[in-house]
Amino acid sequence: MEEKKTSVLSNGLIWFGAAVSIAEILTGTLLAPLGFTKGLAAIIIGHLIGCILLYFAGVIGAETERSSMETVKMSFGQKGSFLFSFLNVLQLVGWTAVMIFNGAIAAQTAFSISNEWIWSVIIGALIIVWIMIGIKNLDKVNAVAMTGLFILTIVLSVVVFKGNVAKPVSGDGISFGAAVELAVAMPLSWLPLISDYTRTAERKKKTAFVSAIVYFFASCYMYVIGMGAAIFTGESDVAKIMVSAGLGIVALVIIVFSTVTTTFLDAYSAGVSSVSISKKIDEKKAAIIVTVIGTALAIFTPITKFEDFLYLIGSVFAPMIAIQITDYFVIKKSYIEKQFIIKNLIIWAAGFALYRCLMKVDILVGNTLPDMAVVIIVCIIINKIFGGEKDV
User: Where is the chain membrane-spanning (predicted)?
Assistant: First the structure.
């Protein structure tokens, strides 16, 4: 039976849901020390870099009709890709825990149930419901949820910006380059996932473009709400802002459903990536297990700071996608029949190390762009020199 294809609209709704999250709003608050004008510039530049990469990753998955981790095999080989599948599952378990924890804390603030673990369980259960419905049957559910969330985020932005003046922002300062990198990091964290959705697209390049552009605007919007909350209300806890404005039930709906629609993508893609490790794994069952583990981590290991987690994701996946983009669009070579592509694994390791080193340097455009530029140039040179090399 022919696999059901997904529409441009349904993919756009998925990526709107991915962007509307408490984690994005919280990350936006970190940019407040720059002030609104510089902070906005950093948000736009960072998201431009990240979403262009998101588009290219989506095109690879759409044109080859492969999941994200299956496309990784095209550059690193069948067994060489296991490293990235494992790291991807690991980061998705981490994201699931981070999202559920932050959602539970915010929901507790917005509603009078004092135990965070209760909200963690509620959010985890709703994510499992989303998984059971399935990515190809979520069109109508997502359309309703996303319409509601869009309206509610407009209400939230009015509460944040209406009648407020800039207030002194407490906390450590942040450089412009570091702010750009925090803006790059969020779309970059979705790079190992986007092909899981574009692979079944009816209209390939258009779906990849719409997915990236919807995420760009929605994610920028979330960052701006977070940054604006810190600058104009002096409060970085958005749930408290909404409650103080009399939006208790509205706040709860935004928090719970934005957490569910975003974290569903993490759990679902963890299941898809698990299949890349072993075909015996059922992706839906794996996604449910990831949700259960993420919920347990959210309850028993509270997470209060995740900037370092974002930078770690960038250091792993920026050089990986740079190699994939070079192989697919520039060199036009696939190694999917091979087991290990040693030269690409070495280049990735060097790119990973370079990213970590660049974190100590304040670069105006952040770390991702220069790191990827170096990796792409090295890839092309190495291919020219060792183009005929037989990888194992």
Answer: 12-34, 40-62, 82-105, 117-135, 142-161, 173-195, 207-232, 238-265, 286-303, 309-331, 340-358, 364-386
